[in-house]
Amino acid sequence: MSLSARIYLVTNLRSALVPAIALLAGISSAQSARKTPPKPANSDRKLVSIQVSGSQRFTPEEIIAASGLKVGDVETEDDFKKVTQELGESGMFTDVTYSYSYSSAGTKLDLQLADSNKLVPAHFENFVWFPDAELVSKVHEREPLFKGQVPIGGNLADRVSDALQSLLLQHSLSARAEYDREGAPSNGPIDAINFRAAGINIHIREVRFPSAPADQVPFLATAAKKLEGGDYLRSEVNAYAKTALLPVYLEHGFLRAVFSEPRSKVVHEDQDETQVDVDLPSTAGSQYKISSFSWEGNSTFPDTKLQALISLQPNQTANAVQLQADLEAVKKLYGTRGYMVAALKPKPSFDDSNQSVAYKLEVQEGEVFHMGDLEITGLDTKTADRFEEAWNLKPSDAYDSSYPKRFIEQSWKLLPPKTNWTVSLHEGVNEKEKTVDVTLRYGIKPD
Q: At what angle are helices 60-67 and 77-89 packed, to 10 degrees?
């Protein structure tokens, strides 16, 4: 190659390299310009404000207290993530999100929340050493999201239980805080969450009725005797008041009486047990007399036939318990004609100015049921055949609910003598087929 050719080649090679070097320099410069800026110093991470939005149930101050965050503290994004997770796990919110911004003054945090509507009341079953208001207040101090209700999910119920345990320990009480969910069985809806002090004996010494009419107190006290000496649980006292004490009022014409929540007071305490007196406040209301009865919906029996089964009379003091028993007698009458699902409902109309009540007795007769299958067990074949021949109700007949008992009374003579027999009756009502299957089970009474 000639000298002139070599010079030309070197010159052109340099010309080609210059743009390439310049391009690489430009790429390097651009990458340097896009580097992540340095994180703010700790002094810039101080919380200067916390904004809360979205909750209608809690004030911003309550949510901030529940978060544990404080203006002036140094916080990081990891702290914000932890707080939102804990608020979400409480079960009080369906959604919790956050956003934040840095500035030379510090960090501004914004919490956005959506309230859960799946809350139920918290009931204190037997924390007899503290009024309910004090319990709510004390737990709220530790758990700002607690105001007397708890979510059916989440962990707030556990945290409330922990707060109650701490309260028991502060008062040197050797009890264990527990809770259960009150509601229908088989995964039914939850109505409340009941907190109780377990591992301690709390017994009822006496039940009192501070607001009851004086003439009703003896009746109520007699009905409450079964509670005395038993364990104190508020839910059980409430249930007993509804099933055994309210009927006392209803028997004596106080048809609108209601019981309030029981109030307990510790009257004796030692290492073995705690004894309490229980006050059951009530509002008796007016004492009503019966002004009239009327019937509606009955076609099989006339009013006079049905009214003859009602033992109460106009101008007598109303007795809702007796009336219900009388209506059961009316229902049995309908059963003799095959009306096996007849329903009767008393509808009272109150006249408060005269303290009287007029009853409209509504009847839903339903359809007529017929005799279904007859089964007789516990007897030898020959005797069972005689019983079946003596049975007069046929499949085409309307069922008579009074007939099986009459048959049992009249058929003893068909049984082998010198044996102590027993018999049980079962009626199987088939609403789809509109039939009643009857089973008579005979046995020998043990000596």
A: 110
